[in-house]
Amino acid sequence: MPEPIAVEERPVRSLVLTGFGINCEEEMAAAYRLAGGRAEVVHLNAVLHGHVRLDDWDVLNFPGGFSFGDDLGAGRVLANKVRFRRLPTGVTLLDELLRFIARGGYVVGVCNGFQALVKLGLLPNVGGGYLQEVTLTTNEPGGRFLDRWCHCRVRPGNPSPFFAGLTQLDLPVRHKEGRLVIATQALREAIVERGLVCLTYCTTGGQPATTYPELPNGSDLACAALTDPSGHVLGLMPHPEAFLSRYNHPDWPRIRRTSATTDASDDGAGLALFRNIVSHIRRERRTSTRSDRERSRS
Asked: Helix 76-84 crosses helix 93-102 at what angle (to 10 degrees)?
């Protein structure tokens, strides 16, 4: 009996947007490639003009940077461009984005990208209407631009596959408008009940951060990352794509010495998020393929 022919699995494909002041696109693309996926960096105009279609991708990424110079507030102009600009097909890019999510695609925004997703209403989307419910605004105390490393803790029970198996990690932040503000107590309670805060700033011992510098921006709920109820949309203020190698960390010599006997890997903690999503999408595909085969036999 002949051996079964192995079918090569289609790679997980990640679309990384750039242009208009976005400046962390290459690190984001590198993260997916190191995680075993494929990534392509494209200018936002390529999507708006219909040269690149979201249907061809598994993950859409809004990287960090200073889109449109943050002139009207960080992420605001980028969000408006996505919400109102019509594609050659006549629908808005937001319409295409919602269809992309509905068919199982994932959307990630880091720093400036997080700001855009919040102002688009994709996060946290507690009400389900894709209207802006929270904001990311000027850091407290002092309203200064911040560039430092922070301790972060993963909140258990969150629906995002990016954080599977993770508990605590260091990540760099570099922003001026990273303070999450939740307008009402009812919305705050809904976010907590649904586990939508998936990453919080913490102390070195893992306790919730309450003051600067452990809480770098004064964010409500000490929130460093937020997901939507489906787990398909994720926004982070820290930069996981900036910690792909252990040697990115400012304290890497001590970390290397203290962990050399138990961990031979030189991977940075941020790389784990991208490996998680690549592995998760592969598992989803295999499950879907098995289900399709079972239905065809019945």
From this structure: 80
